[in-house]
Amino acid sequence: MPAVFSWAVAGADGRERARARMTSPEEVRPDERSAADARILRRMAAGERDALAELYDRFSRPLYATALHILNDAAEAQDVVHDVFLALWEKASVFAAERGTAFSWAATLTRNRAIDRLRSRRRRAELLERSLPADLGYAESEGAAASAEEAAGQRDQARVVRAAVAALPQEQKRALELAFFGGLTQQEIAERLQEPLGTIKARIRRGLAKLRGSLAARL
Amino acid sequence: MIDERQEETASLYALGLLEGPELAAFEAELAGNPELRLRAAELREAAASLAHAAPPAEPPAGLRARVLASASGRRSARILPFPSLLPWAIAAGLAVAATGTGSLYVARRSELTLLREQQRLAQLEAASTRNQMEAERIVHQRELADARQSLAEAGRRLADSQREVGQMRGATEQLRQQVEDASRQVAVLDRKLKSETDLAKYKIMALVSMLKNSPEAMAVAVWNPMEQQGMLKVTKLPMPAEGKDYQLWVFDPHYSAPVNAGVFQLDPATGEAHVKFKADEKVMTPAKFAVSLEQKGGMPSPHGPVVLLSE
Known about the structure:
Shape of chain A: globular
Structural class of chain A: mainly alpha
Low-confidence stretches of chain A: 1-30, 127-147
Number of strands of chain A: 0
Strand content of chain B: 15-25%
Distance between the termini of chain A: 35 Å
Mean pLDDT of chain A: 76
Largest sheet of chain A: none
Mean pLDDT of chain B: 83
Number of helices of chain B: 6
Oligomer: heterodimer
């Protein structure tokens, strides 16, 4: 039985439509926040430990929330986030802003490591039949109180993303949720949702395309 | 121009859902297609932004210090599974202080703390490795069991197939026997038909008595033109006189005179004869048979009285 997700966010009207993003090949135009993140990574590459603290303040909430959402285990989520920041610290010198944003890099690292752990845990306990964390839903009020300017910035970004996600058709949201947080393969997602594989691929394509358009327009 | 298939594959790629040959093929396509590369990067950004859609959760306060302590402890690429290294930083600070003050006691205590921490980390790392190995062992056991089951299943299928082949061979042998039997029957029937056809060519004639004193005497002559031989059965004919023999003649339109078919002897007890005979000439269409009483040993042509004659 597929889990029930609640991505709904207050204020998300879902009516905004993506505007075409005019960029030339080989160029991903970063916004100011992304540019600031890139500068922080360059400082980290130069060995500035303060820069790591700054990046932690900017990224730790969404990364920890992602790891916790995937693993449903606070201790394991902490280990993942810890490992990710150490990896960023040690590999900051190889970061190339033209290939993607720092947040994208960090979020991908977090998601992949969390899913690796999830799969390892499933194998270990042979829990393939019970693959998803029990609590995939959330209430907006459960979030921790903001304590810094970075936190406010991250919350703004999160709000925009959630609004964009909330505007997606339900079946596209569920396919994306299982793909990003569930650690399932294409086939497993299709089996979980009891739909043909081609339908799942199409839902993921449409959902991600809409999300890309929405975020390009809003962020 | 990016088509729908490329867009779909790029989406799956962005979400880490491509594997094996599919992944390799797409990465090869990416390498030669800058536009697709840009689209894949944008989709990866969109996918990564989903991290913001996770239910909000505040990281524990201690995590920040733990990360910073780990970062200051080393710059190598090695990442420890349980990197609670804050004590390292404290110990390092104490060591620096000891050097500054020249306090050997503090320095040694710091060294001891460092060593204990190192030992604890090594133990944790060993425990983690053990857990991982145990997990792998369980997985491998499961895979081995699955493989054994597959092997047993394959063995069962092979046995079934061999049984089927055996049954088919048996059926084939049975069919071969049936074909042989049928061939034999056909041969028998063929021979029978041939003999029946030959029988139709036989000439069979009854000979009646020409004797006033033995009107009941009679004979049946059968002539096989294919084998040029015949059979004669005589009944109730009186015994010939001394120095005399009965002689059989065949009349054929191809010859102007009767053809000699030889003399025959009667059984004295029954007055009957049942003999095979042959003609001196080739006879294909016998018109009549006749028996005459001739000199002992027979004559080249009939001279005596006719005693039996076919109708």
